[in-house]
Amino acid sequence: MHRTKVRVATDVLDANATIARANRADFTRAGVRVLNLMSAPGAGKTSLLERVLVDGLPGVRPGVLEGDVQGSFDADRLSALHVPVTQLNTDPGFGGECHLDANMVRSALGSIALEEIDLLIIENVGNLVCPAEFRVGEDVRAMISSVTEGEDKPLKYPLMFRTCELVLINKIDLLPHLDFSLDRFLENLDRVNPGVEHMLVSARTGQGVHAFAAWLGALARGEIEAAA
Amino acid sequence: MHELALSRAILDSATEHAQGCRVRRVSVSVGALRQVVGDSLAFHFEILARDTVCDGALLELRRVPARLRCACGEEWELAELAFRCPRCGGADVSVLDGDQLRVESIEVEEAACTARR
């Protein structure tokens, strides 16, 4: 049987990238800056957002897109802060995916009041592997790594740590109770993403949260650009 | 975990380029900087390909090492996870190769095409 080789040369995530660019163009047209916030489950994405949004961001009208496999627990918590929140579930209908992709975000665009906000924070599904592979139309990416997760995480999930413009180190109020070496963690972070900006925060005590709020303000004003 | 979604994208790409011909091999290059589990990718691909033109096709993965270049001009192949320049210690490092995940080519059987190529 005669076989023929056919050249393809197509990026596997080409379709996703195309939709992500369309999302970003729509956000830009609406004057909305977008943050893709990622972390492992339980690192404190929702808690940190609660903490930073409860006092409001001066001069910024934030909105949140909540990505979860199931349920609206996080969206319910955040909507109590009188911030526009849209829930996006990845369970059947979307295939129960472990991450958000560009098409899922596209499907939610109609239910986000873009004219009421100038900063959209997309809280991705808790996962340190898959979300890193899928652009969803964000301007920049940030991740949270909590000190209870251990200092080796940058070396175990290098793609996630490399893909972000900001790394938030959360739960630092627990440092006195842990064997976690912050120096070692920062060394590991520097190995996989040299020079990346990082912040020490505690969603529980509020420590460092003002710096994150200021960063979000700068992002909303278009003063923070993606590295790549 | 995202290998299912990646397999689906690979299958879509291969099927589109096959233009109705039976696919025997799908060649994919995987950069060392991607977190892709080859066995998992092949497993999902085999299941998704059933009853398509890619049914039974071999998914061939070619690993591509990561090559980096520092602003100082130094170029090197990444052997361990350390992205600072080994010569000057700088952080202004760009990736030359090894971050791809690309369907390079497919092999089709000319005589087994349901549609005209």
Strand order of the largest sheet of chain A: 4-3-5-2-6-7-8
Cα Rg of chain B: 18 Å
Task: Enumerate the spans of chain B where pLDDT stays under 50 for 5 or more consecutive residues.
Answer: none
Gyration radius of chain A (Cα, Å) is 18 Å
Can you count the helices of chain B? 2
Fraction of residues in helix of chain B:
10-25%
What distance separates the N and C termini of chain B? 35 Å
Strand adjacency order, main sheet of chain B: 2-1-6
Q: Main beta sheet of chain B, described?
A: 3 strands, mixed
What is the global morphology of chain B?
elongated
Greatest interface by residues involved: A-B, 38 and 38 residues
- Total DSSP helices of chain A: 8
* Coarse morphology of chain A: globular
Please give the alpha-carbon distance between the first and last residues of chain A. Answer: 46 Å
> Beta-strand level of the residues of chain B, as a percent range?
35-45%
Strand content of chain A: 15-25%
Question: TL;DR?
Answer:
The complex is a heterodimer of chains A (228) and B (117). Chain A is α/β, with parallel strands linked by helices.
